[in-house]
Structures are given as C-alpha cells and as structure tokens.
From TrEMBL, chain A:
The keyword Plastid does not apply. This is Sugar ABC transporter permease. The chain crosses the membrane at residues 21-42, 77-101, 113-134, 140-157, 164-188, 208-226, 238-260, 272-293. InterPro entries: ABC_transporter_permease (IPR051393), MetI-like (IPR000515), MetI-like_sf (IPR035906). It comes from Paenibacillus cisolokensis. It is a multi-pass membrane protein. SUPFAM superfamilies: MetI-like. PANTHER family: ABC TRANSPORTER PERMEASE PROTEIN, DIACETYLCHITOBIOSE UPTAKE SYSTEM PERMEASE PROTEIN NGCF. Belongs to the binding-protein-dependent transport system permease family. Keywords: Cell membrane, Membrane, Transmembrane, Transmembrane helix, Transport. Residues 73-290 form the ABC transmembrane type-1 domain. It is found in: Cell membrane.
C-alpha cells in the first residue's frame, strides 16, 4: 500500500488530537442533548429516568393544546418584539448622536457610560429594578410620577404593566450594547457618499435618512435576528421577579419558564422537551423569515 | 464616460464655493454658529441619556449605605442616605455568605476560562495550520452548534450530569466548557493571519506539533486569548440559569444564584439597603474588569457582535 492510501496520516492524527476537546464537548453537550431531547419528547418520561412508554406525538399535542403554553409564548413574543424594536430605535439614535459629536473625549465618555449597564447580571438588574420600580409611593419611578400628579403604579405587581416594566428594565441593559455595534457600523459608512450628497444640497438629516440608514441595513437585520433569538429565551429576570408562576397572574410566564416548570417542578420531562423543540422550531422559523426578508429587500447590491 | 465621471463632482464643488462667496461674508460664521449650537444640543441630549443610565447605579450605591433603609424603603426616596453607615455591608456579609459565593464564582470562572481557552486555541490552531481529513466537517459541526440555544439542551445536560453523579459539583461547569465553538472560530480566524512558515521551520527543526503550538503560536495569540477571557468571565460570572439547575447545596452556590436564592426565599423588596449592598458587592469584579479593560471589551464586541 502506498503511504497516500494509508488510513490515517500523521497530520490526520494530530489534527484529531488537537480537536479532541472540542469534538468531545460538541458531541456530549450539543449533539447528544439535541438527540436526547428529541427522543424524550416522544416518550412518557417522568422524573430523571430517560425511559418510559413511546407516546408518539402526544407530548406535542399536550403542549399545543395547553393554553398556558400559548399564553407563555404570547408574553415572550410581546416582550421580545417590544424590547427589540425599542432597543434598536433608541440605540441607533444614540449611536448617531454620539457619532456626530465632534468632541472625542465626550464620545468615549458617552460610549463608556451607555455600555456600562451591559456588564450587570440579570440577577443584579432585577434586584435593583425591583426597588426602583417598587409598587408603593417609595419607589423612585413612582415618586417621579408623583411630581406629575400621577398615582403610584404597580410596575411589577400589576399584570397590565408588568411586561412593559420588564421591557423598560431590559432596555437599560441592552441599549449600550447595540449602540456600540451601531457606532462601529456608522464609522464604516464611506465619507465620499456623504460628501457627494452634501454637494447635491442634502442636509444632514436627509443624508442620515437616505444614506446612513440604507447603508447600515445589514446591521439592523443582524440586531433583529440576535435580539429576537435573545428575547425568545427570556428567563432569569421573570423567574426572579415573577416566580415560577410568572406572577402577576401569569403575565410574566415565558416560554423558557414554561419549559423549566414542566421539567424541574412537575418532572414532566417529555412535555418539557417537546415544548423546548417547539420553541426551537419557532426561533429557527423567525430567524429564517428575517434572513429571507433581508435577502429579498437587499436586491442586487 | 470614465474621463467625465471624476470631473463631475469637482464642478459641483466649485459651484458651491461660488454660491458661498456670492451670498456674502455672513455665510461662514453663521454656519459655524449653527454647528456650535447643534453640538451643544447633541451634548445636552446625550448627557440627559447618560443620567438615565447612571441613576440606577447611583441610587443602588447610596441606598446600600443607608442603615435607615435596612427594613424598608424610606419616603421620600433620597440620594443621600438618611442614616449613612457601613453596617449594611456587614449585615450583607453575615446574612448572606457573600465571601463564600464570590470565591465559588471565581473558582467556576477560572476553571471554565482555562478549559474553554485551551480547547479553543488547540482546535483553532489545528483547523488553521494542520491539513487533516475532515477539518471542514469539524469546523462546520462546531459552528452550526453555536446556533443551538442553551435552553434547548439544558434538560438532557442536567439528566446527563445527574446520571453520572456530577450534579452539585463544578465538573458540571468545567466539562461543558470544552464546547466553546465561538472561541474556536475566533482563534482560527486569528491564527489564519499568522504565517505558516513558523510551523514549517519548527517542524524542520524536529520540534513536535505540540511544542510548535505552545512555544511559537500560543504566545502570539495573546490578544485573542484576552478577548476570550473577558467575554467568558462576563458570561460565566453573570450566568444564573445553569447554576440554578446544577448546584443544589448552598455552600456551592455562585454569587448570582446565591443572591437570587436569598431573595427568592425571603421575598422580593425586603431589606432594601442590605440587598443593595450585596448586589453592589456582586458587581465589583465585573465593573473593575470593565473599567480597566473597557477598550478591549468595546472593541471585541464591535468586532464580533456576539457576546458569548
């Protein structure tokens, strides 16, 4: 046998050896769990025993007929869409303002300040805002509403406002992150495009509208995709602020909280994995729709 | 056409200059004044925005020193403590085993960072410099698993660890850290830019692949390792979902799950200044990292656009 036809060359062996930790990690903590979750979603599994009778699609139909699941999905979607759209709008405006500031020291200062909340954990943010958004008149936000003559609002305790409060809270953390990415994008807009338009008599607002925004379209879509995926996975803050029941009155029940409840409180692993696959399919579908929209609108450029 | 195109903007630029001078001497100064005005407005709007960002921090720190708010919020809300004291911090450390939790968080972070960075560098190097069969498959598989949300895999992963008896140990953190495909991606992209001739020279000199990697390439990878360390530290320090599932005994809790469980058991909105003191302490490491490495963090996020 010629050496070229040998089963494994030296390079092959070293390559696999160097990749062994990665391959083992991917196999054990990505491929296996995905397969196991799929398997479990077709079985009647209770407790931590991965076995039980084959029940076909009944776990899926249970989830799909459970009004709790739809409510959780609706809440997740509502909070996700609102925080993604508001977050993108606010951070794009902020990034544009920072970018037009001519004072470099100020630029860096604002960048730093806006980004700071992003390093704060979801737990710390939730604890902090549970006091800032305290339902009584002692809460800072309600106190400020008092200046306007408004009555205290039960931000996290009134089901009418709880989801909006979560959105406001997450905006505090997310705006800086998106601002940084937008700023990087804004700096990549070719200057001669602006100069040409200026020569044609376009004011700075017009240029922003017709040059900057279309030029940054890929970044907008990137943020829509990342924000949507992130929004669909909301758990830590609603768990801490609303408990496992998603209080007040289930308004903070999210899809991941639904999965968590079924898996770790009710020990319904089959139902929980079926719900997690449904959530995964929804995330994939949303991502695909956004990417398709991007491609369609993109046209030849 | 090609000759004409570049002259077109030049003519228009000339016209603009003409119109400027035609409309009199007032034009340049008024434009300057308008600029100064718009810069001032910009600054005021941005400053107002940063006050909104800062006030929660300020309120947290001020309340954390307010012994008067140890049982409930004071009315009216005040920025300056009613009864300034550091006793709130003493209470935080005695009511909640903060020192233990913080130590645990450091242990978990250090282990995860070590395992992830080594795994990412080894695989990134091999995928970039060693030609082996199936390299593309490995890369494609690793990158495609990056799309899988952790929430999808957490149930089987929990059952896997409880099946082998590693729940409530830090192995439940160190072992999954091997799967750091994003780091592999970063390392490969970085090593792609380093010359392959270094490896060839080393191999000719009879050095083993491992020593070529460790002595020649690994030291050159310092910048990308720094990026990974920062992103991993922020991610691991702040995570709560996996610690919630994987850690059962309270003496193993990391700081996030420790704080969360304390609040969960005592109820929300209790002991404002003590909770705020504990929260402020939990933020010190990430805020320090941010203050000293801000440039790195902002650059790496602008570069990668992905936080984990």
């Amino acid at each position: 046998m010629s050496p070229r036809k040998r089963l494994l060359t030296r390079n092959d062996l070293t390559g696999y050896l160097f990749n062994a930790p990665l391959i083992a990690g991917v196999a054990a903590f990505a491929v296996y769990p995905m397969a196991a979750a799929l398997y479990m979603s077709f079985r009647q599994t209770e407790g931590s025993v991965v076995s039980g009778a084959w029940v076909g699609l009944s776990n899926y139909s249970y989830v799909l007929e459970d009004s709790q699941f739809w409510k959780a999905l609706g809440n997740t979607f509502y909070m996700g869409v609102l925080s993604v759209l508001l977050g993108i709008a606010i951070s794009f405006i902020m990034a544009s303002l920072i970018n037009s500031l001519k004072w470099n020291l100020g630029k860096n200062f604002f960048k730093g300040v806006y980004f700071l909340p992003n390093v704060v954990s979801a737990v710390a943010t939730s604890l902090l805002f549970s006091f800032l958004f305290y339902p009584g008149k002692e809460g800072l936000l309600n106190f400020m509403l008092g200046w306007l003559g408004l009555d205290p609002v039960g931000w996290f305790t009134d089901p009418r406002y709880s989801r909006l409060s979560i959105v406001l809270m997450s905006l505090w953390g997310a705006v800086g992150y998106n601002t940084i990415i937008f700023l990087a994008g804004l700096q990549s807009v070719p200057r001669d495009l602006h100069e040409a338009a200026e020569v044609d008599g376009a004011g700075s607002f017009k240029r922003w509208l017709h040059i900057t925004i279309p030029y940054l379209r890929p970044i907008f879509f990137f943020m829509l995709v990342m924000g949507t995926i992130g929004g669909m996975k909301r758990f830590t803050d609603v768990w801490l602020l609303g408990g496992t029941a998603g209080n007040p009155s289930g308004s903070l029940m999210t899809a991941v909280l639904y999965i968590y409840r079924n898996a770790f409180l009710a020990s319904q692993m089959g139902v929980a994995t079926a719900a997690s696959y449904l959530l995964f399919i929804i995330i994939l579908a949303l991502t695909a729709i956004l990417l398709l929209l991007n491609r369609k609108k993109g046209g030849p450029d | 056409m090609t000759n004409f195109a570049p002259t077109e903007p030049l003519i228009q630029k000339g016209e603009e200059h003409l119109s400027l001078s035609r409309s009199g001497t007032l034009q340049p100064p008024s434009r300057k004044r308008r600029d100064a005005l718009s810069q001032t407005v910009l600054f005021i709007v941005l400053a107002a925005g940063s006050i909104v960002m800062i006030i929660p921090f300020l309120w947290m720190v001020m309340t954390s020193f307010d012994w008067g708010a140890r049982l409930q919020l004071s009315f009216p809300p005040r920025l300056w403590p009613q009864d300034p004291s550091t006793k709130t911090y003493e209470a935080a450390f005695t009511n909640i085993p903060m020192a233990k939790y913080i130590w645990n968080s450091f242990l978990v972070s250090a282990g995860v960072i070590l395992v992830s960075a080594v795994s990412a560098l080894l695989s990134g190097y091999a995928l970039s410099k060693i030609r082996f069969r199936g390299a593309n498959i490995v890369l494609l598989l690793a990158l495609s698993t990056m799309m899988i949300p952790f929430e999808m895999t957490m149930i089987p992963q929990y059952l896997l660890f409880s099946g082998v008896g590693l729940i409530d140990t830090y192995w439940a953190f160190y072992l999954p850290a091997m799967n750091y495909a994003f780091g592999t991606f970063l390392a490969k992209a970085f090593i792609d830019q380093l010359p392959s001739s270094l490896r060839e020279a080393g191999v000719i000199d009879g050095a083993s692949e491992l020593s070529v990697f460790w002595r020649i390439y690994a030291p050159l990878c310092a910048p990308i390792v720094a990026t990974m360390v920062i992103l991993l530290f922020l991610g691991v320090w702040n995570d709560m979902l996996w610690p919630l599932l994987a850690l059962k005994s309270s003496d193993k809790y990391t700081i996030q799950i420790g704080l969360a469980m304390f609040t969960y058991n005592n109820g929300l909105n209790q002991q404002p200044s003590i909770i705020m003191a504990a929260t402020a302490v939990s933020l010190i490491p990430v805020v320090l990292v941010y203050l000293f490495l801000q440039r790195y963090i902002i650059e790496s996020i602008a570069l990668t656009g992905i936080k984990q």
